[in-house]
């Protein structure tokens, strides 16, 4: 604190900013040195600084932290080049409805529009990837802007916001902060219930349907509504599947659970035979889903003649792709109200059909597992399905699994089992950029230090972020990284073959010593090229302290059972 700010009743603006963040429950800042004035005082307010190696990874860490903690994730960055690297993670958070606060340093106020070093138009930069962007020009407005930023991020459809802080403003003297007590750093901040009459109408439609079905999306996790989702499934005897982002919102061991019903239901998918229940549905209840391309298998998955009911906090998403009875509001409140309304309807027919329905689901599940022979393959190079089977056999409900984009997410979503409603599988499915799996896992670990966190990545995506292994070691964020090393950009190669009958020259890698990289960063590492070594290696990694990388040599011809690949690629499923 400088001499001027040390006057009685005054503090620096940076102190006021730190105090305001702490008031909202912020205890972790993902950031490097800048804004230095903030990071220098943050420890006085009990905030931990997780110092990433690159800003794009830092933003993804804040994203993973927010998804697991249900609190706003905060990332900081320098102006100019560092700020530009926040665009990808903020864009992911924008599409995936994750509340983040990016605090970005600006040049000194008297240097604005003078071509100062690393000056950039941050308003233009963040305009398309944030709900709200503002600059704090006066230290007296810090509490106002922090409150506005966090409220904007956590209310309605959650998303990222940006606060721009001129470097000299953070050094200004600031009169003692207002005696505010509001805390808005959690989400959903405001829970809004749908129209009660529409709830009653939805209950009547469900009770009268011959074959109703539920699709639970990522909004169930964002609303912390997994218990309510389970209660509805049980009370109304409803078969329930999920989208990719909804993975874990439903207990997949429940006799009425269908697993992930999305774009990977081709031959070899354990959930392939669950599609029949969607085909037969005369009513589909959508909960917290944007009905996006992958979640609906390019809008071909859901039955054409079914009636739809759609619950979502964002009214612009309700009925966007499927005309529906609109239940605009918070998923938890909507599910509570709908469950209560269904108890007032005659549920005799649904209850009477439950045992037969459960038997059909069990039969379909077993048929899918029987056909997914690669899960039991001893071949070398190792099949990814076998890797997932070995991990699944050791997965417990309290474990968190994070995955990179591309194939990694699909292997996790299709071949691991959610053993409890609310188990978390964190995948970048908003924009689905490569390289985000490792930092998502580190953010998840920062949010839940007592949980085991497993990260599944491909060698292509891992190459974007392997430097963050050093962050894991330095910050004590112990995770297990399972690297699917097939030596290619798999999705790129296979999609090009399907679309064009040939592939570009950009998909092949030379051999990389990933274990050497892990050990150079101070982590453990092991290369695995025999299926029989997988189980013991995973068990040892889960039991070991510190971060461990398992570099598993996988079959380059293997691909998830993506429906559009069906019949176009041989031998890979």
TrEMBL record:
Its cofactor is thiamine diphosphate. This is Acetolactate synthase catalytic subunit. GO terms for molecular function: acetolactate synthase activity; flavin adenine dinucleotide binding; magnesium ion binding; thiamine pyrophosphate binding. Residues 12-124 form the Thiamine pyrophosphate enzyme N-terminal TPP-binding domain. Residues 199-338 form the Thiamine pyrophosphate enzyme central domain. Keywords: Thiamine pyrophosphate, Transferase. It holds the Pfam family TPP_enzyme_N. The lineage of its organism: Bacteria, Pseudomonadati, Pseudomonadota, Alphaproteobacteria, Rhodobacterales.
